[in-house]
Amino acid sequence: MSAPGSASARTRVGRPLISLALASMMDEVHAHSGAVYLLAADEPVLEMAVMAGLPRAFAVPWERVGLSAPIPVAEAVRERRLVWVGGEHEMARRYPRIAVVLPYPFALAAVPVATSSKVHGAVFVTWPGSHPPELTDWERDHLTAACGRLAVRLERAVEDSVPPYTEPDLLTAAPVGSVAGTLGTVEAARMVARLPYGLCSLDLDGRVSFANAAAAELIGAPVSQLLGSQLWAAVPWLNDPVYEDRYRAALISQHSTSFVALRPPGDWLSFRLYPSTTGLSVRVSRARAVAEMNRAGPRPGDRPSRLVTISQVLSLAGALTEAVGVQDVVQLVADEIATAVGSQALVMLGSRSGRLHVLGHRGYPDARVVERFDGLPLAEPTPGTHVLNTGVPAFFESREQLEHLYPGRIATPDGFAAWAFLPLIASGRPVGTCVLAYAERHPFPADERAVLTSIGGLIAQALERAVLYDAKHQLAHGLQAALLPHTLPVLPGIEAAARYLPAAQGMDIGGDFYDLVPVDELAAAVIGDVQGHNVTAAGLMGQIRTAVRAYTTVGQSPEAVMRSTNRLLIDLGTDLFVSCLYLRLDPKAGRAVMARAGHPPPLLRRPDGRVRVLDLAGGPLLGIDGSAAYPTTEVDLTPGSVLVLYTDGLIESPGVDIEDALADLGDQLAEGGDRPLDELADGFVRRSPAARERLDDVALLLLRAVG
Q1: At what angle do helices 446-483 and 326-341 cross, to 10 degrees?
Q2: How many beta carbons lie within 10 A of that of residue 400, not counting itself?
Q3: CB–CB of 59/97 below 8 Å?
Q4: What is the pLDDT of residue 50?
Q5: Model pLDDT, residue 136
Q6: For residue 396, what are the contacts with CB-CB under 8 A and spacing of at least 6?
Q7: Which DSSP symbol is given to 166?
Q8: Residues 526-582: pLDDT tens digits?
Q9: CA distance readout (Å), 632 to 436, 563, 625
Q10: For the chain, which terminus, N or C, has the lower number of CB atoms within 10 Å?
Q11: pTM value?
Q12: How many CB atoms lie within 10 A of CB 368?
């Protein structure tokens, strides 16, 4: 006889282990759906092993869940504790990914399947929306104990080398045996056939398992066509996500739902769905009130009712991924939400240093109504601050409701009659409040509240990214402004104008630079281009510009300035190269001495209007060869002459030959060289295809000798 601790003495693992455990668990706590997840063998992923009570299609997005995902079962495993979600509002606030796809009233508990030494997976079970908002101690204890027992049995199965196997999902419930004995199947069918309205029975997958003749006549399809098919798949005019959404809502919430649909050409039908854990009963009848209203035509002031659907939410989610800055988010939400839920105005609120901050608004005729809330302390009792502080949404169907809770609003009317205050929570913390305002009283049904709260989660994520982008954008522009000259110095005998445009791609910051430096009675001009258009390039650009200015100030010759800068760049070890053009200007003598390091050649316009490209001698890019020489070239610069110094971002554009671009630049210079330099600089930038596309930074420095 085997010892009590041996494997043969243990209770053998029976099949189906997981399905039976889940069914027993759901039965004990009266849950209507659930699933068991097991940890994958070779990756940090939970895989759905068995689903019960609802079609697996409802949970397709979560059949495989990463352990780091913001999903209740993953959180239960990570923290080895029971996770409770008491309703659709809490789901939308804590787990917006789930609420977007399932915006229905239901409660959920997720429990780890674990022993003291090992986690095997997790279980979730759900209840209808009528479940109390808190889980009872009895339910909590039963779920925890059942998952503990399942973990022990799974561990024994591993120790006994029981091979894994696939278990079927549990959709079909035990048959109700008392019905046939009480009514008789034939008499039941006769009774249903005599009813004056249509009746259909749908299984959990939405397939028609029974339809009486009245239903077939109203729908306009034979019973044979309906049986075994989903209504929205069998009948073309019911093929709308709105109607499938009602079926999903009824099954998940276990609440009766309804909808009306237009059967072409003009018959409105009413569908009432009565759910249970075994499927749905559907009553079909003529929607006479809707038909009469349709015949009467719309009344003045009537607005079309709109239903926020999953497809609209997903469309909004996709659009929000394209928003870049905060104002992009505000505009996009105003455009998308207004059409979906019928709101007429929008305010986006954030917080800064303990005070409310108005990030943006749309739809308010008088902006002062909104902007007076900017800077309001977060401790001030207003709906916007309350929602931002608590993370709990607030819905006011009428002005009376709002003013009852916040009497101060009586003195600050904004012309609207209903409001939805949505908390914007991202990364577990509130980042703002989205306020939707309605011109008329507006009821907020439970499903609309759930979807609006879910939308708040999506907006929050987009807003968090946008705030970070705007902060980086401001930092980049501040850095760029600090590294480039604020103004050009006034030099005797020289007029100057400059333009800088960062690349449109990236952080709007680049490595192109220019400078104009007075040196006694002379002057020095420099323009250059550091590889890249990012913070690294900008930082190196600042170092190079400072070095050139320092070498110039101590009196080095143009060739020496280039050699010194080249050695500095190599010593810095940045692996970035720099093109550069340096000029020593002598307006009194009417000449300029130039040194070039791989930079595009400047253009010179003579006083008689002739333009030529200065083919200067030069050396390699700075930062390549520490022993490189940079010979100089002397150029006449008589009064009235104009020099155009630029970086390649002004002339290099896909599909445009550089020589053609230079020729066009020369033509512009010949034609307009007598105009003020600021006008000439603006014209160069405006007419340049490369500058318009801004695939690269653009720096432009114009110099005119005036004697």
Answers
A1: 160
A2: 10
A3: no
A4: 92
A5: 93
A6: 383, 402, 405, 418, 419, 420, 421
A7: -
A8: 998 887 666 677 778 888 888 998 999 888 999 999 999 999 988 887 778 889 999
A9: 67, 12, 18
A10: N
A11: 0.47
A12: 7
Residue 660, Cα to own-chain centre: how many angstroms? 43
Angle at which helix 558-572 crosses helix 535-553, to 10 degrees, equals 140
CA-closest candidate to residue 154, choices 27, 54, 22: 22
Helices of type H across 408-557? 446-483, 535-553
> Which residue in this structure is represented by tokens 């009774």?
191
Q: What is the mean pLDDT of residues 234-248?
A: 82
HEC letters along 656-671: ECHHHHHHHHHHHHHH
CA gyration radius, the chain: 37
Q: Can you give 354-413 as a three-state secondary structure string?
A: CEEEEEEEECCCCCHHHHCCCCCECCCCCHHHHHHHHCCCEEECCHHHHHHHCHHHHHCC
Q: What is the DSSP letter of 228?
A: T
3-state secondary structure of 582: strand
Q: Are 250 and 275 in contact (CB under 8 A)?
A: yes
Coil, helix or strand for 486?
coil
Tokens, residue 434: 């989205």
Look at 404 and 339; give whichever has higher pLDDT: 404
Q: Please check whether residue 655 is in contact with residue 648, taking contact to mean a CB–CB distance below 8 angstroms.
A: no
Length of the chain: 707
Per-residue tokens: 105: 């009233």
Sequence letter at residue 190:
R
**Predicted pLDDT of residue 301:** 40
Q: Distance between CA atoms of 425 and 429, rounded to whole angstroms?
A: 5
Structure tokens at 166: 């696939």
Nearest to 71 by CA among 93, 98, 48: 98
Most confident option among 121-130, 315-324, 367-376, 476-485: 121-130
DSSP letter at 93 equals: H
Amino acid identity of 85? V
The type of residue at 395 is F
CA 643, chain centre distance (Å): 48
Structure tokens at 307: 């239903």
Tokens representing residue 280 in the block? 């749905």
- The set of residues, in sequence order, having a beta carbon less than 8 Å from that of 311 and lying 6+ positions away, is 241
3-state percent breakdown (helix, strand, coil) of the chain, nearest 5: 40, 25, 35
Go through 78-105 and write b for each residue having 16 or more CB atoms within 10 A of its CB, e for each that does not: beeebbbbbbbbbbbbbbbbbbbbbbbb
The backbone torsions φ and ψ at residue 690, rounded to the nearest 5 degrees and listed phi first, read -65, -40
Read off the tokens for 636. Answer: 């006449």
Closest listed residue to residue 582, CA positions, set 661, 504, 514: 514
For residue 36 the two structure tokens come to: 């068991």
**What is the DSSP secondary structure assignment for residue 435, as one 8-state letter?**
E
Structure tokens that stand for 390 in this block: 């608590």
What is the C-alpha to C-alpha distance for residues 620 and 625, in angstroms, rounded to an integer?
8
| Tokens (6 digits) for 249 | 């809502």
Residue (of 389, 384, 369) closest to 433 by Cα position? 384
Q: Cα–chain-centroid distance for residue 290?
A: 39
In this model, does residue 109 exceed pLDDT 70? yes
Query: What angle (nearest 5°) sits at the alpha carbon of residue 61, between those of residues 60 and 67?
Result: 120
Measured distance CA(136)–CA(142) in Å, rounded: 10
pLDDT reported for residue 292 = 47
210 - beta bridge partners?
Answer: 201
Strand, helix or coil at 420?
A: strand
What's the rounded Cα separation, in Å, for the pair 121 and 640?
Answer: 82
How far is Cα 73 from Cα 75, in angstroms, rounded to an integer? 5
